[in-house]
Design brief:
This protein is mostly helical. The chain is about 55% helix and about 0% strand. Helix 5 (about 125-135) runs parallel beside helix 7 (about 180-200).
Length: about 270
């Protein structure tokens, strides 16, 4: 539906003509852009999922119509408008939640197994894409990255089981080459799966701006197939959640979801990404 809406909106602009070496927008182009931005505003206000989706579509259209100077200009203006809107909101959320995140880390960011290789940077390639999407779905970015790390070790490929990168067994991404669009779809599928399943709990206490120890553990345990009881989650595989965190889970090969989340959040707050 969103694709169709955006296509109709773009149809009011895309009257393809001869390209010129350096396109100079006409008064009509400027008026059309103003009108289209106004229409987009009605679709993205308080709806960051729409905002990120429309930005992704303009990014695709930018590649599709790169041969036409006029269309390239119009699409670029819209893409920039959407991305600026998304970025400003995201960084405002980062700024206002920084103190609470630091307080969270001060309480829980300790007890790591020093024998585990420091791999926190391993999954942050394409960080901005994952961060944008996590913001759109109001989900902690560090937790998205930690689940990806635990499920696929963050490889940028499509493995034989086709479920990459979050091992959602109901999804099939095929065996062709990984592309940016397939990657975006896979991350989006994870975020939709996560928020639809776990936000049904009245006690859910995770968001892009808020981290909660109990619900990081609960989420990881449930994601790995743990027994569902909203007040207490019993992990089928505690190592999946806690590897490398505390004396009981030392000598692991890699971090569990909880310590990996903490380490990534620590790096985020230090502005490493």
């Amino acid at each position: 539906m969103k694709n169709r809406i955006l296509s109709l909106l773009f149809a009011s602009l895309f009257i393809i003509g001869t390209s010129c070496a350096a396109y100079i927008p006409t008064a009509k182009d400027t008026a059309n852009l103003k009108d289209l931005k106004s229409q987009l505003d009605t679709l993205i206000v308080n709806n960051n999922i729409n905002l990120r989706d429309f930005y992704n579509q303009t990014n695709n259209l930018s590649n599709q119509y790169s041969w036409d100077e006029r269309l390239s200009y119009l699409i670029w203006e819209l893409k920039t408008y959407l991305h600026t809107n998304l970025t400003n909101q995201k960084w405002a959320a980062k700024s206002t939640s920084k103190v609470a995140k630091k307080d969270f880390l001060a309480q829980y960011n300790t007890g790591f197994d020093p024998s585990i290789e420091y791999t926190v940077d391993q999954c942050v390639w394409r960080y901005n894409t994952i961060d944008d999407l996590s913001f759109a779905y109001d989900f902690p970015t560090a937790l998205t990255l930690a689940i990806r790390y635990r499920e696929s070790n963050c490889g940028y490929y499509l493995p034989k089981n086709w479920n990459w990168p979050f091992q959602i067994t109901t999804k099939d991404y095929g065996t062709w080459d990984m592309t940016q669009q397939v990657f975006i779809q896979a991350v989006t599928d994870f975020l939709e799966f996560a928020t639809n399943k776990w936000k049904k709990s009245p006690s859910w206490n995770l968001s892009y701006s808020n981290y909660d120890y109990t619900w990081i553990v609960n989420f990881a345990a449930l994601y790995n197939g743990g027994t569902k009881s909203w007040e207490l989650i019993a992990p089928n595989n505690p190592n999946y959640v806690f590897d490398g965190y505390g004396a009981e889970y030392t000598w692991a090969k890699r971090f569990g979801v909880l310590p990996q989340t903490l380490k990534i959040l620590e790096r985020e707050l230090d502005n490493k990404y």
